[in-house]
Amino acid sequence: MAAKILYGKEFAARIKEDAKKEALAIKEKSGVMPGLAVVIVGNDPASTVYVRNKQKACDELGLYSVKVEMPETATKEELLAKIDELNSDKKVHGILVQLPLPKALKDAEDEVLNRIDPRKDVDGFHPVNVGKLSVGDATLTPCTPTGVIRMLELSDINMDGAHAVVIGRSNIVGKPMANLLLQKNATVTVCHSHTKNLADITRTADIIVAAVGRPRFVTADMVKPGATVIDVGINRISQGEGKKAKLIGDVDFDNVKEVAGAITPVPGGVGLLTIAMLMQNTVTAAKDQLGL
Ligand code: NDP
Fold first, then answer.
1. Distance 39 CA to ligand 1 centre (A)
2. Which helix (H) or strand (E) element contains residue 167?
3. Could you report the per-residue pLDDT of 192-232, keeping only the tens digit for each?
């Protein structure tokens, strides 16, 4: 039987709808609308699109939003000073620095992210929030894996006692994904490039989350019949000069959907949840800072 396709659009709409309601309730109680500041340094084309989409989402929900554009030549000190300014701006409850930073600032990435007030860290990347997540006491958790959890919940896919296999151990996706699944009482196995006999492990999974960054890496023979397969991967495949790159996931969708019980497509799956969760995190941060 072919798998149920989990389209990100409907889940993202639900998450944004809930965030909007919560934002309006905050405004009613405190007179303050939650606000997000997005800082972009330089003019990387992909980053420009991401930032535009984040602002669009803020507009859609009626959130206050600020876009801070800094030139490619900005120094670390200038960027840190800007973050300090946003940290003390009462209208701003969430701060996001769009990555990657230009080459000249690459080595300063950790210092820059760590300068954000943890209570405004809507990406959930600050060590304080990473630590809180690992002890099960986090308010702000990384958007992509948190969006995956919301999608599983909204789809009534059982995590309690399920064997979840996460392929990938990055700080952005794999590790927080594993922690969040653990908090949902899944039995979690984290795999990476040194893992031996990966297919033997994935074949025992009730839930597979692929965050590898390799096109069609998860094949049908790696999946237990009826398992849920979540594809976080976004791989840009060139279609030749002048043509728009094709986006494909880490899962061999066409074949895996014939075995899995539920599966997310790429595009149109997990990617849409990330911005929706960013909106929710901004609202959560505002609630926390306003003491509501
Ligand atoms: P990273 O490159 O940081 O991590 C990739 C992980 O995959 C690493 O842990 C690596 O292992 C593991 N890996 C690589 N090759 C293998 C292999 N052969 N077998 C098993 N594991 C392997 O990527 P990210 O976590 O940042 O992103 C993963 C994917 O998700 C990318 O395609 C990215 O574009 C996408 N993404 C999508 C988002 C969304 O909104 N949908 C948001 C963020 C990312 P090791 O640690 O040993 O090197």
1. 24
2. strand 163-167
3. 999 999 999 999 999 999 999 999 999 999 999 999 999 99
